[in-house]
Amino acid sequence: MQYLHFKKNGVRVKVGQKVKKGQHIGFSGNVGWSTGPHLHIDLYLTDKNNNYQTLPTKFKTEDNTITDELKQDAVYLKDY
């Protein structure tokens, strides 16, 4: 798993660290080839040749809907 597009010096976890549900992992930013601040998550397995296989992922939205696809340009918030 990797997280991308954090703001500069905005990461609050270390490589290999396990994270917990609701844990603050960092501050989203607008870096790289992005059109605005957001958190990009890649979930995958790699084989011995470093070929990537994307893993299916489910998301639970704030209204408790379970989905495998989030809507483009939608905002999903967690009230801490």
UniProtKB/TrEMBL annotation:
GO terms for molecular function: metal ion binding; metalloendopeptidase activity. InterPro entries: Cell_wall_metabolism_enzyme (IPR050570), Dup_hybrid_motif (IPR011055), M23ase_b-sheet_dom (IPR016047). The keyword Zinc applies. This is M23ase beta-sheet core domain-containing protein. One of its GO terms (biological process) is proteolysis. PANTHER family: CELL DIVISION PROTEIN YTFB, PEPTIDASE-RELATED. It comes from Nonlabens ulvanivorans. Its cofactor is Zn(2+). Keywords: Hydrolase, Metal-binding, Metalloprotease, Protease, Zinc. Pfam families: Peptidase_M23. It comes from the Bacteria. Residues 2-48 form the M23ase beta-sheet core domain.
